[in-house]
Design a protein that fits this description.
With about 525 residues, this protein is of the alpha+beta class. It folds into three domains: about 120 residues, Uridine Diphospho-n-acetylenolpyruvylglucosamine Reductase, domain 2 (2-Layer Sandwich), CATH 3.30.43.10; about 110 residues, 2-Layer Sandwich (Uridine Diphospho-n-acetylenolpyruvylglucosamine Reductase, domain 3); about 170 residues, Vanillyl-alcohol Oxidase, Chain A, domain 3, CATH 3.40.462. Helices cover about 30% and strands about 20% of the residues. The protein has 14 helices and 18 strands. The strands form four sheets. Strands 15-12-14-13-17-18-16 form a seven-stranded antiparallel beta sheet. Strands 5-6-10-8-9 form a five-stranded antiparallel beta sheet. A hairpin with a 5-residue loop joins strand 8 and strand 9. It starts with a helix and ends in an 18-residue tail after the last helix. The structure holds flavin-adenine dinucleotide and 2-acetamido-2-deoxy-beta-D-glucopyranose (5 copies). The site of one 2-acetamido-2-deoxy-beta-D-glucopyranose has 2 residues, from loops.
């Protein structure tokens, strides 16, 4: 098909024009509402733009010159700024991506498939306050989970919060996506412990639990914040922890009967004492002088002392052979550092370092398991992992309170009947390897199909995976949304769609995997 060059030119200028007017109207609207925009608005021509963009990029795959970048970055420091940004962005009809900690595995908090978008970056909104007597913490969206842990520990050595393992995750994304960590079998997900929230809706109003109502409050506890508004804060319940907890790490290669022990783990880890969380890492590793082999690492946290722990493991999981040389007693806050792989000389103050992590290239996927993988199949899977060479697994046991909370209590649906969740993980340093490693992971994902949950095959929102569906937010938005939406939310997807349709009917808060509005009738 041939187009007349003049027609193309006209279309081109029309597009340029509309982008230009969108942007100038956004800026003048913002100026009118909040005055001078110094330190708030960063345009690509200002020196602050690139450093601000890169500061919270947590996956080097989205740090390339070719990565789509925002037309502007806005860095509010007050709630009123957020209100103004939402009103002005909506009025100019420009897509707004929201970033808190930047850990999204697919970078969708700061890149976009739409040609024009702005980045609303929450890092300046990060107050935390702890009320020991009421056993509550108030934490703003731009704070990191490690900062929350540190503040709780400073206030009391008997209280904690059941959130995730990586300390630099942002509250805004981590909690709204259903965050989990080493206490999930005892206390559930982070969202099971949220009692209030503040957010800005599409009308630019600040809402709390009471004014947003129970439907919207339900949605932002696992349905992802970015489909509904800008999360400003969560108020969370604190949970009891003993002054001494115990950790261990036991590693076995296949030659040490790891297959038998992994097989047993499937039957034991989801039903054992709910104070015990035994995470299982399965990876191809090179061990000198033997060469490449599959290693299973059992990494555990127990809410009790070592004697009690050994009583539990000797009775319920003798095959693992945990002994008193493997176990280490420590405070809960030190267990946070241990599970985050800091060495044992590291002090809790590291949690206040907002850049304590090392960032490279990565890809993740997820699966849920409702039945144990038969032992002969485990052997085949490990063989496949050896052939592929790089992709590893992280298995996280469920059970305990996870099996008691109804699957409709929050948008996060994988409760009773789900034995564990699996993460597929590959990290690398050399940009060139991307294609190869993505292919390896997809191949392993295909290989796991017979064993994983199905109809639909489940996935975890916080393990964002663009392979399971993308929404272009056009005429087929609902149909596209249903594809990934039912994987993340199972039967809760429809309720999320209904709530979305009420609170944001024009789909201002949208991204590659947001909740769509109801199909037009
Ligand atoms: C190294 C690493 C370790 C991890 N470990 C765990 C773990 O142990 N447990 C676990 O549950 N998850 C884990 N995750 C996943 C993590 O929980 C998610 O990536 C989470 O979304 C990160 O939140 P964020 O604010 O840092 O991310 P961002 O990239 O800033 O945001 C993620 C999503 O939330 C939206 N969002 C962010 N802030 C707001 C806001 N204020 N209002 C509305 N929407 C918002 C974004 O638009 C985006 O859609 C890990 C991720 C990494 C990279
Ligand atoms: C992004 O690239 C810059 C160089 O342009 C580099 O300094 C920074 O460390 C990179 N960040 C990540 C997460 O790759
Ligand atoms: C954070 O706390 C400080 C000190 O109390 C206060 O001045 C500031 O307004 C707070 N910021 C936000 C965004 O709540
Ligand atoms: C958002 O902007 C659109 C026009 O772009 C407008 O029709 C709509 O009323 C606005 N929404 C709100 C809640 O102000
Ligand atoms: C592996 O299992 C076999 C048979 O059950 C047993 O004889 C052998 O001692 C075990 N090896 C190790 C290292 O535990
Ligand atoms: C700390 O780690 C070092 C090196 O791994 C080890 O030798 C030492 O025993 C550990 N100390 C404690 C108190 O566990």
């Amino acid at each position: 098909m041939e187009s007349h060059p003049h027609v193309l030119l006209v279309i081109f200028f029309f597009m340029l024009q509309s982008t230009y007017s969108q942007q100038t109207s956004f800026i003048s609207c913002l100026q009118a509402k909040i005055g001078p925009l110094t330190n708030i608005l960063h345009s690509p021509t200002t020196p602050s733009y690139i450093p601000t963009l890169q500061e919270y990029i947590k996956n080097s795959r989205f740090n390339k010159t070719t990565t789509p970048k925002p037309n502007y970055i806005v860095t509010p420091s007050k709630f009123a700024h957020v209100e103004a940004i939402v009103i002005c962005a909506n009025a100019s009809n420009i897509q707004t991506k929201i970033r808190s900690g930047g850990h999204d595995y697919e970078g969708i908090s700061y890149t976009s498939i739409e040609p024009n978008f702005i980045l609303l970056d929450m890092f300046n909104i990060r107050n935390i306050s702890i009320n020991v007597r009421a056993r509550l913490a108030y934490v703003q969206a731009g704070a990191q989970i490690g900062e929350l842990y540190y503040n709780i520990w400073k206030a009391s050595n008997k209280l904690a919060f059941p959130g995730g393992v990586c300390p630099t995750m942002g509250i805004g994304g981590h909690i709204s996506g259903g965050g989990y960590g080493a206490m999930l079998r005892k206390y559930g997900l982070s969202v099971d412990n949220v009692v209030d929230a503040e957010m800005v809706d599409v009308k630019g109003r600040i809402l709390d639990r009471k004014s947003m109502g129970e439907d919207l409050f339900w949605a932002i506890r696992g349905g992802g914040g970015a489909s509904f508004g800008v999360i400003l804060s969560y108020t969370v319940k604190l949970v009891d922890v003993p002054e001494i907890v115990t950790v261990f790490r036991v590693e076995k290669v296949l030659e040490e009967n790891a297959t038998d022990i992994v097989n047993r783990w499937q039957y034991v880890a989801p039903v054992i004492d709910n104070r015990l969380f035994i995470r299982l890492l399965i990876q191809p590793v090179t061990i000198k002088p033997y060469g490449k082999m599959i290693r299973a690492s059992f990494i555990a946290m127990f809410l009790g002392n070592s004697q009690e722990l050994l009583g539990v493991t000797n009775k319920e999981f003798p095959e693992l052979g945990v002994n008193k040389n493997d176990v280490r007693e420590m405070s809960w806050i030190d267990s946070v550092l241990y599970l985050a792989n800091f060495d044992n000389k590291t002090k809790p103050e590291i949690l206040l370092n907002r850049h304590s992590d090392t960032v490279g290239f990565l890809k993740r996927k997820s699966d849920y398991f409702q039945t144990p993988v038969p032992k002969p199949s485990l052997a085949l899977i490990f063989k496949k992992m050896m052939e592929l060479g790089k992709v590893g697994f992280v298995w996280n046991p469920y059970g305990g309170i996870m099996a008691q909370i109804p699957s409709s209590a929050t948008p996060f649906p994988h409760r009773a009947g789900f034995l564990w969740k699996m993460q597929y993980a590959v990290n690398w340093k050399d940009a060139e390897m991307e294609k190869d490693y993505l292919n390896q992971m997809r191949s392993l994902y295909d290989f796991m199909t017979p064993y994983a949950s199905y109809s639909p095959r489940g996935a975890f929102l916080n393990y964002r995976d663009i392979d399971i569906g993308v929404n272009h937010n056009g005429a087929n938005s609902y149909d596209e949304g249903k594809v990934y939406g039912e994987k993340y939310f199972l039967g809760n997807f429809d309720r999320l769609v209904q709530i979305k349709t009420v609170v944001d009917p024009q789909n201002f808060f949208r991204n590659e995997q947001s909740i769509p509005t109801s199909p037009a009738r």
